[in-house]
């Protein structure tokens, strides 16, 4: 039968077990007192342990003599104090002093050793820098040539516009003969007449090009360069357009061509040989040289952008090589790495394959 505990504090220990015999009641009372005594002893032990932990946290310099693990001496130079918990030093100053002493003793020997033996990595770095500088000079020269071509093209366009407009009856006759020939557009696939094929393909490509966006968060600033990127700010996407300015179908549309404007395209012989003559047909009726000014300008601008990208890549490579050469003889590298020279007569430590 389970014992029923009294609710009132005025009841005695024997009254907690009213249904038991007097002998059993005394035995149950003794068991209960022993359990209470054990609980009190355990509670006092836990309280003492917590108090010790609190004292150690408040006073870390005061260590317990009975614990041999906390009696380690500080590694600082000339220091006799015990270490802090989970540390090799009694304070941060001792650690800094020991590190300074190690640097003063080890670093001069490492520097002397570094100066005696040649560094093969530095030799390779110097060769790479020489190659990079040579490529930079070539790219700068090519960029200057592109700038000259840019101005030459503008002069050719100006000369072509100054030509007199004339009508070519033979070309008009050829247009009438080929009016029924049809080809398919490379963008939309529609069958179109050969006479208007170039105009249709250019407009169709521009229509599809407007659906894609090429932008960045900042405009382009290049010294000495003119008319490269569009750089028109879009308030919706909060970006600057990065298409070529002459080819951007969204922000630079072709103006309406008047009837009396000449084509002005320089004529060639055998595809590449300039003849010195210009196409004198009206620009609105010339089918062989549609948008020739825009395409020539875009070609020159694209070559200039490629040269600028090449210069940027070469600058990044030069920075990486310089950074590697500076870090190779730095304090941390000299302290952590060491080359052991077993033969004092050998100054070049390269293997036969490297040499």
UniProtKB/TrEMBL annotation:
Residue ranges of the region described as Disordered = 42-64
Keyword tRNA-binding (UniProt):
no
Q: Report biased composition (Basic and acidic residues) as residue ranges.
A: 52-64
Residue intervals of the CpG binding protein C-terminal domain: 99-335
Q: Name one Pfam family in it.
A: CpG_bind_C
Top-rank lineage group of the source organism: Eukaryota
Question: Which UniProt keywords are given for this protein, alphabetically ordered?
Answer: DNA-binding, Metal-binding, Nucleus, Transcription, Transcription regulation, Zinc, Zinc-finger
Where, per UniProt, does this protein localize?
Nucleus
- InterPro entries reported in the protein's UniProt record: CpG-bd_C (IPR022056), Spp1/CFP1 (IPR037869)
Is the Hydrolase keyword given for this protein?
no
Protein's name in the database = CXXC-type zinc finger protein 1
Phylogenetic placement of the source organism: Eukaryota, Metazoa, Chordata, Craniata, Vertebrata
Name of the gene: LOC106802567
